[in-house]
Specification:
The complex is a heterodimer of chains A (about 220) and B (about 200). In chain A, strands 1-2-3 form a three-stranded antiparallel β-sheet. With about 220 residues, chain A is mainly alpha-helical. Chain A has one domain. Chain B is mainly alpha-helical and about 200 residues long. Chain B has one domain. Chain B is about 60% helix and about 5% strand. Chain B has five helices and three strands; from the N terminus they run H-H-E-E-E-H-H-H. A three-stranded antiparallel β-sheet of chain B has the order 1-2-3, covered by helices on one side. In chain B, strand 1 and strand 2 form a beta hairpin. Chain B is elongated, with a radius of gyration of 21 Å. Classes of the chains: A mainly alpha (about 220), B mainly alpha (about 200). At the A-B interface, helix 2, helix 4 and helix 7 of A face helix 1, helix 3 and helix 5 of B.
């Protein structure tokens, strides 16, 4: 690239990208409340689904015989119950299932608020993202239960889980439950739509990339 | 109808973009962003979970958050006292723990900024402004949660784990979108064909 070409390709901001980002922020903020209301209404059903799916995955992958039951408690909690413990001590812990999936609100708001794609594509993308998210949530339930078994039951944990297993379940639950869970909406949004936010690569001379459509919002 | 761009040449690395992420097809740059983002995020949290880092960095930082929150609560007449990461008055007490100090959102923002193809100068500007903004939002969260616990205790749990976590993460994501949206284009040697529209988007 010549010196003149480099100068022409210096810092610039294309109008389409700028409009995309600002519209995305506005739409996302506007979608937060309606999406939160839908999430709130569906939470009891989804909590139960996660409890059943997580329990079944535990049985399938990690238990023989099957000893873990996840029992709903109040609106948002699940009790971790072990059938092989004495009846007075069979409830080993509990966790707030709702806490596992509240980032879905941000996920849906981001997908619904993305300007450009048709509604059909937007909803199809959101559906795909929600299915991926559901698998992540089920895995998170398994990590929660295994983290409890491996690190929270004192002598029983030490007897049944080695140092490596305790670290794997502990670190895995920590990483999945905080950073990955919270960043999951952004990860999925970026997987579908980041290209719209990326600066168009500057090229030789004054070449401008084709403008992206921004129909609808 | 979607357009499929020709596979571009390997993008050139520049001092401001060592991964060469500013060049290449949109799909390639998207993948590079995602891989870097997840690696930085997971690596960062692994480092933060080390006992030494927790004791020497996170705990003092969290105590600083408690100090700022306590000061703000006293400014609005709450008469709180602080002990380490605990803030209390006659009505209520909170212990600011990991997850409530804004560090997670800060790290998500940092990972997204570092993974995004931009100049180092623009990244540093984003990190400086974003860190301050996220901590301000977190300060509002801690103060609001304390007041919720003191005056509307029935709403505290939901407010703590759902509403404010969502708002703080939302603030980090919105800040990142605004920052990325304003990122100036940096020079790279990508051929014109490679900058065509992303495949499989518009219908």
């Amino acid at each position: 690239m010549s010196r003149a070409g480099k100068a022409a390709a210096g810092p610039r901001l294309d109008a389409n990208r700028s409009a995309f980002g600002l519209t995305l922020v506005r739409n996302t903020l506007l979608w937060m409340i309606p999406v939160a209301l839908v999430w709130l209404a569906l939470t009891p059903i989804y909590d139960r689904f996660l409890e059943v799916a997580g329990q079944n995955l535990l049985h399938l992958l990690l238990e023989s015989p099957n000893v873990t039951r996840l029992v709903p408690k109040d609106t948002h909690f699940a009790l971790i119950v072990r059938n092989d413990f004495p009846p007075s001590k069979d409830v080993v812990s509990s966790f707030r299932v709702t806490d596992l999936h509240f980032p879905v609100i941000l996920l849906a708001a981001l997908f619904l608020g993305t300007p450009g794609p048709t509604w059909r594509k937007r909803l199809a993308d959101l559906g795909t993202a929600l299915v991926i998210t559901a698998f992540f949530h089920i895995a998170l339930v398994v990590f929660w239960v295994q983290f409890t078994y491996a690190t929270q039951l004192g002598a029983w944990s030490a007897e049944h889980y080695g140092a490596v297993a305790r670290n794997v379940w502990g670190l895995g639950k920590h990483v999945l439950d905080l950073p990955i869970k919270l960043a999951f909406p952004l990860i999925l949004w970026a997987a579908f739509y980041l290209d719209r936010l990326l600066p168009a690569p500057s090229t030789k001379g004054s070449h401008q990339p084709p403008a992206r459509a921004t129909k609808g919002s | 109808m979607s357009k499929h761009p020709k596979r571009p040449d390997k993008p050139s690395a520049t001092p401001s973009d060592p991964a060469g992420a500013t060049g290449g097809s949109p799909r390639r740059r998207q993948v590079i962003f995602l891989v870097l983002f997840i690696l930085i995020l997971a690596g960062g949290f692994t480092v933060l979970s080390l006992n030494w880092v927790n004791d020497h960095v996170i705990e003092p930082f969290t105590a600083g958050v408690a100090w700022a929150s306590g000061g703000t609560l006293n400014l609005i007449g709450q008469g709180v006292v602080r002990q380490g990461t605990v803030i209390r008055n006659a009505r209520f007490a909170v212990n600011i723990e990991n997850g409530c100090n804004g560090v997670e959102t800060l790290l998500i923002f940092l990972a997204a900024v570092l993974a995004f193809p931009a100049s180092w100068r623009w990244r540093l500007v984003g990190l400086a402004v974003g860190a301050v903004a996220i901590q301000l939002v977190n300060l509002v969260r801690v103060v609001a949660l304390f007041l919720t616990g003191a005056y509307l205790p029935g709403l505290f749990d939901t407010s703590h784990t759902v509403i404010w976590q969502t708002l703080v993460i939302l603030s980090g994501v919105v800040l990142w979108i605004v920052w990325a949206n304003r990122a100036p284009v940096t020079a790279s040697a990508t051929p014109p064909e490679a900058s065509a529209e992303a495949p499989g988007d518009e219908e």
